Amino acid sequence: MIGKFVRVIVDRPMGSCHHDYPDYIYPINYGYVEGIMAADGEEQDAYILGVNRPLKDFEGRVIAIITRTDDLEEKMR
User: Fold this and answer.
1) Rounded to 5 degrees, what angle do the CA atoms 44, 21, 15 make?
2) pTM of the model
3) What are the structural domains of the chain?
4) Nearest to 65 by CA among 26, 34, 38
5) Cα–Cα distance between 9 and 64 in angstroms, integer?
6) Are 54 and 30 in contact (CB under 8 A)?
7) What is the Cα–Cα distance from 29 to 56, expressed in whole angstroms?
8) What is the tens place of the pLDDT at every residue in 15-53?
9) How far is it, in rounded angstroms, from Cα 32 to Cα 8?
């Protein structure tokens, strides 16, 4: 997966509030990779780094995979 070009749909743009926790503001663009399913049955989550403005979508290369201990799926960036 590292190095693969993907399209990310940004459903939580930089500066937006979390839908369940309105005091949490997203410091980066966060979304999902179109067409790649994760372990939780949803499309793969992705963080977009290096872009300092809100986005709707993004095409780029996967540079890292984050494994969180409190989640079923890995996060791409």
Assistant:
1) 70
2) 0.83
3) 5-76 (3.90.80.10)
4) 38
5) 18
6) no
7) 9
8) 999 999 999 999 999 999 999 998 888 899 999 999 999
9) 5
Tell me the mean pLDDT in the region 7-20: 96
Contacts of 45 (CB under 8 A, 6+ apart): 30, 31, 32, 33, 38, 73, 75, 76
Label each residue of 14-55 as H, E or C.
Answer: CCCECCCCCCCECCCEEEEEEEEECCCCCEEEEEECCCCCCC
Nearest to 16 by CA among 26, 31, 6, 7: 26
